[in-house]
Amino acid sequence: MRAFLLRLWETWLGEPLRKVEAESLAYRFSDDGRRIDWKTPVVLLTAAACLTLQQYTANPGQLVSVARFVANTFSGPGAATEVEGALRKWGSDQLTNRLWWAGVSVLTYAFIPFLVLKLVFRAKLTDYGLKIHGVLRAWPLYVVFVMVMAPIVWICSIEDRFQQTYPFMRFSSPDEVHTQLWKWEFGYAAQFVALEFFFRGFIVHGTKHRFGVYAVFVSMVPYVQIHFGKPMPEAVASIVAGIVLGYMSLATRSVWLGAALHIGVAWSMDLACLARRGLL
Questions:
Q1: For position 132, what pLDDT does the model report?
Q2: Which residues in 212-248 are b (16+ Cβ under 10 Å) and which e?
Q3: Nearest-CA neighbor of 197 among 145, 137, 246?
Q4: pLDDT tens digits, 183-221
Q5: Which end of the chain has fewer surrounding CB within 10 Å, N or C?
Q6: CA–CA separation, 193 vs 107, rounded Å?
Q7: Burial class of residue 108 in the structure, from the number of CB atoms within 10 Å of its CB (0-12 exposed, 13-18 middle, 19+ buried)
Q8: CA separation for the pair 99, 116 (Å, rounded)
Q9: SS3 assignment for the chain
Q10: How many angstroms separate the CA atoms of 147 and 143, rounded?
């Protein structure tokens, strides 16, 4: 068993991670590496700006005063009233409010970093975790993660802390679940794809030339912070998840299986909590 695990590590993690570290070392000792590195601060400043923007726009109600001021300044009171009405409509019910949050997440986690990569760095998105070729190479490790997480999700779903948190949309009847759950879960999944790209693609692959494998820990810190306010076991587990998924992204140079795993765990938690409440 020990020999099997060592071979597993060497095949899917050991050798790929040594390659990343060797590439980073070669860069730091190259002529480019001795010059001012503008890329690393641009990536990290963009990440900080995106997380800040997300924090203060995640609810449409947070934008009412700013939108009213801008509309009044450039178009007059009529436009201000119209814009305010549109924002309040987005926040008028759970589903639209939650989909607004998912949309803001995609904007800040993916769209803005996309623009920075294409317009500032003239980079290929496939070099930042979005490549598809070879994405299934490390699938056995992800299967192991699923086998570990499935029972943990079911056990945690019975606790009040998780029942009070998941799903983010609060359902009161099976009919409501059957008509609205799939709409919410679609937006929820899109948010996770964007999130994986942001933390394990944009930040990890955007700083690995400078930090090597330690770029994983750079991305792990803000990743853990977005879990503050959730149940403490989940926040603690996010430390491990941030490191493991970061290493997997470095080794495979892709975030797609990590996104699939993240979505699978999140959907499973939602369904388990609903099943515990008898709403499925």
A1: 86
A2: bbebbebbbebbbebbeeebeebeebbeebbbbbbbb
A3: 246
A4: 999 999 999 999 999 999 999 999 999 999 999 999 999
A5: N
A6: 12
A7: buried
A8: 25
A9: CHHHHHHHHHHHHHHHHHHHHHHHHHHHCCHHHHCCCCHHHHHHHHHHHHHHHHHCCCCHHHHHHHHHHHHHHHCCHHHHHHHHHHHHHHCCCHHHHHHHHHHHHHHHHHHHHHHHHHHHCCCCHHHHCECCCCCCCCHHHHHHHHHHHHHHHHHHCCCHHHHCCCCCCCCCCHHHHHHHHHHHHHHHHHHHHHHHHHHHHHHHHHHHHHHHHHHHHHHHHHHHHCCECECHHHHHHHHHHHHHHHHHHHHHCECHHHHHHHHHHHHHHHHHHHHHCCCC
A10: 6
Residue whose entry in the numeric block shows the structure tokens 């699923």: 146
Q: Which of 101, 98, 264 is nearest to 170 (CA)?
A: 98
Which amino acid does the sequence have at 119?
L
Residue carrying structure tokens 């609060």: 170
In angstroms, rounded to a whole number, what is the distance separating the alpha carbons of residues 141 and 164? 31
Q: What's the CA gap between 68 and 57, in Å, rounded?
A: 15
Give the list of residues 6+ apart from residue 259 with CB closer than 8 angstroms, or none: 192, 193, 195, 196, 197
Instruction: Judge contact between 98 and 184, C-beta under 8 A.
Output: yes
Sign of CA dihedral 90, 95, 97, 101: negative
Instruction: Report the phi/psi class of residue 30: left, alpha or beta, with left for phi > 0 and alpha for psi in -120 to 50.
Output: beta
Q: Is 109 exposed, middle or buried (0-12, 13-18, 19+ CB in 10 A)?
A: buried
Question: pLDDT confidence of 144, banded at 50, 70, 90?
Answer: confident
